[in-house]
Amino acid sequence: MTTFDQAESGFSLHPQLAADTAVVGDLLLSRVLLMKDARFPWLILVPRRAEIREIIHLSDGDQARLHREVAEASRAIKGLFRPDKLNIGAIGNMVPQLHVHVVGRTQADAAWPRPVWGSGPAEAYSDVALAERVARIAAALGRIAPAGARAI
């Protein structure tokens, strides 16, 4: 199993991801981010590996770990927000760093039934609402560490 320090080696978050998200914390492999768009419960998981663009570039073990972490994030979104559907995608056309979107969707949301990408301007969180949502998601994920902390 890969240690936390190995996961961090050479990793840096793409500037666009850093600008568009708030950090929730770190799972064993992935940094968990909350998209700064209050219209959707929207997480992004970024494997802490240097210069990875595709899932197939991860080791077999890391691919399995990423799959488990996407499932953990999906369960957290489902439990907290009760969406009608979960959308999961690793597109990367605009941001080349490997990242996986986990988005809770409801039939009443701003983009339904279309994809969330390009569905209009993001709705900003207030500082209080953002901090609250980050805390709720971190609690739902359970074993999550502050970004850059030691492994749990």
UniProtKB/TrEMBL annotation:
Leader sequence residues: none
Full protein name: Diadenosine tetraphosphate hydrolase
Listed InterPro entries: HIT-like, HIT-like_sf, HIT_Hint
Domain HIT: start-end pairs: 43-112
Keywords: Hydrolase
Molecular function terms, GO-annotated: hydrolase activity
Domain of life where this protein originates: Bacteria
Gene3D superfamilies noted in UniProt: HIT-like
UniProt cross-references to PROSITE patterns, sorted A to Z: HIT_2
